[in-house]
Amino acid sequence: MNEIWTEKYRPRTLDEVVGQKHITERLKAYVSSGNMPHLLLAGPAGTGKTTCAIAMARGMFGGDEWKGNFVELNASDERGIDVVRGKIKEVARTAPLGKAEFKILFMDEADALTSDAQAALRRTMEKYSKVCRFVLSCNYSSKIIDPIQSRCAVFRFSPLTKEDVEDYLRRIIAAESVKIDDDALDGLVHVARGDMRRAVNSLQVAASLGKQITLEVIYQTTGLAKPEEVKKMLETALAGNFISARDMLDDVMIKYGLSGQDIIRQIHSSFFDLSITDSEKVRLMDKTGEIEFRIVEGSNERIQLEALLAYLVMMGGSKRKEG
User: Fold this and answer.
1) Torsion angle, CA of 260/264/266/270, rounded to 10 degrees?
2) Residue 78 pLDDT > 70
């Protein structure tokens, strides 16, 4: 396992990209015409934004020439106005190699650029558009200023479906002769939550143990608790047994090495599986949002999580009295 599987199995053409057919069809039209506008690729992590940009460049320039005409920068590393005025401007005004009419400058995590840097970038995008086309990738398009968005064709990526993730993982499993249980594969798809990169990385980590991959291995290597354990903890609290629920919280956090933010996300997902009314779910969502905000702002995570369990105990107590 000398290679990182996310790179080893990265699609090389737009036809191979998984789960974004509505986007790849439009990008293939640009490749066919040999021309393209500035692009803004927005969407969650691991959904194929970088892959689409690279695959489009391969199709646009062909052969090995694409490597000389495709420049990749990470805006989260270089995010200030000096970078735009210096490095980005220098790359943008350089003539493309070979017979290409323009080069592609791909800026990953463009939403990390400061407002001043984005203001400087919009003029650079206009001034050098004849020899350089920009492809901006971001998780949150709302963090990109409107003048830049209006200069770009916007492509919005959606999380991959469970079927897409599972099919792609099965291809890797077959190619690498990995032994994995069916429920472990289902758990891997659940953990990925539409993020193909997370799914492939988690599979490689689990496979590196050199054993049959089980569901237990998946949750241990991904740093997530089993949904059943989280659900049981919540049901114990609703039943009025605060001490047992608190002990379960200790076990889950220590066993899987979870932080407060990690466990609160899993608790949030488990609410929909509880046998409570919709109005009670609404109250729990409201309380969970408050607890999550406090944890993010720096409150003691153990106190806040135990406060949430106490709230569940009180909610269950009120329900028992009504019954």
Assistant:
1) 150
2) no
Residue 78 falls in which region: left (phi positive, over 0), alpha (psi -120 to 50) or beta: beta
pLDDT digits (tens, 9 = 90+) for 221-280: 887 888 888 999 999 999 989 999 999 999 888 877 888 888 998 898 888 888 888 888
Q: Is 227-313 assigned to CATH 1.20.272.10?
A: yes
Encode pLDDT of 35-75 as tens digits: 999 999 999 999 999 999 999 999 988 877 788 889 888 76
Length of the chain: 323
Measure the CA angle with vertex 314, ends 243 and 268; round to 5°. Answer: 80
Residue type at position 317: G
104 Cβ neighbours under 8 A, 6+ residues apart: 53, 56, 57, 60, 69, 70, 71, 132, 133, 134, 135
Q: What are phi and psi of 48, to 5 degrees?
A: 110, 15
Q: For residue 317, how many C-alpha atoms fall within 13 Å in the half-sphere facing its CB? A: 9
The candidate with the shortest Cα–Cα distance to 41, out of 64, 82, 62, 72, is 72
**Angle between helices 215-222 and 182-192 in degrees, nearest 10:** 30
- What's domain 5-156's architecture? 3-Layer(aba) Sandwich (3.40)
Topology (CATH level 3) of domain 162-222: Helicase, Ruva Protein; domain 3 (1.10.8)
CA atoms within 13 A on the CB side of 9: 21
